[in-house]
Each structure stands twice: as structure tokens, then as C-alpha cells.
Amino acid sequence: MDCLFCKILEKEIPSDILFEDEKVCVFRDIRPKAPIHYLVIPKKHIASLNEAKEEDKELMGELLLSARKAAQKLGINEKGYKLSVHTGEGGGQEVFHFHIHILGGW
Ligand code: AMP
């Protein structure tokens, strides 16, 4: 599949990974829009929130808790941070592999 984030997961494209487990990977955004900007992605290819299925319910919850874990690891959890999900071209989505942006460090 010609998906940039799947290639990052396969280590075909280098990235700065904060942590990964069986289902989730968190890595640094290459063009940060905040002093700290990371992306949380599922290892399963889901193009966008629009394509998430009922069976992905638990995975979607894990992604959210992984974002919290990343914020803790990055030391921005106490001060606070923003999460955003771009959905579809009209939502500003550029990479069609579901991801949650973690923005903070201001
Ligand atoms: P979105 O607009 O929600 O689809 O965001 C895609 C994000 O992926 C952008 O913030 C990009 O800077 C980021 N991005 C694109 N290519 C890479 C890459 N090779 N490594 C890390 N982040 C990337």
C-alpha cells in the first residue's frame, strides 16, 4: 500500500519514534506547528476517522490514551496540550492514515 505512515511503521522511511507497541506508534511531526508536535497512529491502516469501523472502537480508545502517555513522556501533561484530528481534505487532512496530532510546549 502506498501510504507514507505505513512506510514509517515498516521503517522504510526514518522517523523519530517516541514509543511504539503492538497496536500504536508515536513519532515526531517532521514539520512541527508547535514547540512540541507528535503524531499518534494505529499500526492498522485506517485512512481517516470516516473509515473507522465499529470493530475499531477499542483501538480508537487506545490511541487517545497513547496520546496522554506521550504527553506524560514529553513532560507537557501538567501544563497542558492540544489534540487534533484532521478528517478529509476539507478538514485539512494531508496524510490518509488516521492520526492524532499532539501539540504543546508553549
Ligand atoms: P494532516 O494534515 O493531519 O494529514 O497531517 C499530516 C502531518 O504529517 C503533517 O503535520 C506533516 O508535517 C506530517 N508529516 C508528513 N510527512 C512526515 C514524515 N515523513 N514524518 C513525520 N511527519 C510527517
Detailed description of the structure:
It is built from two helices and five strands. The protein has helices at residues 4-9, 57-74, and strands at residues 17-20, 24-28, 36-42, 81-84, 100-104. 23% of the residues lie in helices and 24% in strands. It has a single domain, classed as HIT-like (HIT family, subunit A, 2-Layer Sandwich). The longest helix has 18 residues, at 57-74. A five-stranded antiparallel β-sheet has the order 1-2-3-5-4, with helices on one face. Strand 2 and strand 3 form a beta hairpin. The protein has 106 residues and is an alpha+beta fold. The radius of gyration is 13 Å and the shape is globular. Bound molecules: adenosine monophosphate (AMP). The site of adenosine monophosphate has 11 residues, from loops.
Write the layout of secondary structure elements.
Blueprint: H1 4-9, E1 17-20, E2 24-28, E3 36-42, H2 57-74, E4 81-84, E5 100-104
Adenosine monophosphate (AMP) is lined by residues 4, 13, 15, 29-31, 86, 92-95.
What separation lies between the terminal Cα atoms? 37 Å
The helix-strand sequence is HEEEHEE
Q: What's the CATH C level?
A: Alpha Beta
Structural class: alpha+beta
Main pleated sheet: 5 strands, antiparallel
Number of domains: 1
Helix content: 10-25%
Spatial arrangement of strands, main beta sheet: 1-2-3-5-4
